[in-house]
Amino acid sequence: MLNGRRVTVFGLGKTGLACARFLSNQGARVLVTDRRSPSEHAPNLPLLAQWGCQWELGEHGERALSGAELLLLSPGVSLDNDIVKEGIGRGIPLMGEIELAYRFCPAPIVAVTGTNGKGTTTRLIAAILREKGLPVHVAGNIGTPLVEGLHLIGPDSLVVLEVSSFQLETISSFRPRVAVLLNISEDHLDRHPDFETYRKMKERLFEYQEPSDCAVLNADDPAVAPVFSKVRCPCLPFSQKKSLEEGAFFEGETWATSLRGEKVTYGARARASLSGRHNWENILAATLASVVLGARPDDVQRALENFNLEHHRIEYVATIRGVTFYDDSKGTNPSATQAALESFSSPVILIAGGKNKKLDFTHLGSVIASRAKCLLLLGESADELEHAARKGGMRAIERVADFREAVKRAGEMASPADVVLFSPACASFDMFRNAEERGEVFQAEVRRLASEIQIS
Fold first, then answer.
1. What is the pLDDT of residues 353-385, one digit of tens each?
2. Is-contact 80 73, C-beta < 8 A?
3. Which CATH topology does 315-455 take?
């Protein structure tokens, strides 16, 4: 399939590097192109040379297309890139890492997408299936490219894959055995021209499924509703609002699945290690997807009792003089920050701001006004967030220059039993490389505050 073919890999981040290695191992002649300079990629250049790859750094130029028989796009490279569009115009085939890995993957795939919760749900499905004793491989947008671990996956394995809208742009045959769509709300409008385009990109997860496959869909989300009539395989809904003849739903303080006329009730919500409306959406979806693949009630319950949220997802950091600090750095859109705010019954001091992805903060402004005691703003989007919050009725708003000032000021304002929540509703790229780095800086400042108070 690839031996001897000239392949251009666009992007030299984690995904691009993994693709370059895999393609080289398959005998392809690989050129890697990236707009960043050679000095920024210095650690990777010896690896590329070792694998026999060529590179073009500092630009995506004509060399990227010269003689190319396949274009391989990293998720961060848009189809609107001028050189990519030129390549498409010349008829050069194009795919992304998910499509490439799928074609070589020997195991069935469970794929999870949605605006929020997909990482948690991916990890939860994997945890449940591991309780069942299955060899599970987790990959995708969650951090590890699928192509990087293909050598570890056998036909008896099961792959649980987090998939983003960027990755779905470049599929052409990708077919998950079980496809999960959690929710759709505004996000990434700096990449997609409008919400409807973004919504339809999420729908692509089901595009190549067959009647023997399964779709797990949110019955409560109006933006998901059109998908039910479009998929070619059985649809299994989940709902927090109503009982269902087929699917997953709540019954008082327990939750249940009903499949092919067989109803199974699971343990009390209080026994699960996750809380919050958004996490119960994740639990219902994960339970349903896992049961389809043979998980038993005990597998589900054990996984839930032992499950921990990933870093920077409403992550507990510290308690200082009765005030609890939480890091939700991966809350990069308004609906994620709303869900984080709604997770707490105590008064909340919210720290927010970053780089807006062309999203509308109007509704979030009203939520902040009703849920937050005070709003501390930083980053590029501070003006937009302040305007939305004041329009929603929020009055206690302050600007801070950085996390040191934000954490210090929050500590001064908070009373015992209050919550200090960092949930930015924005991307990190105005001040940091990624959301993880941003979250680590926030946590470091919280620890600094704790040590200063202890010393004093």
1. 999 988 999 999 999 999 999 999 999 999 999
2. no
3. Protein-Tyrosine Phosphatase; Chain A (3.90.190)
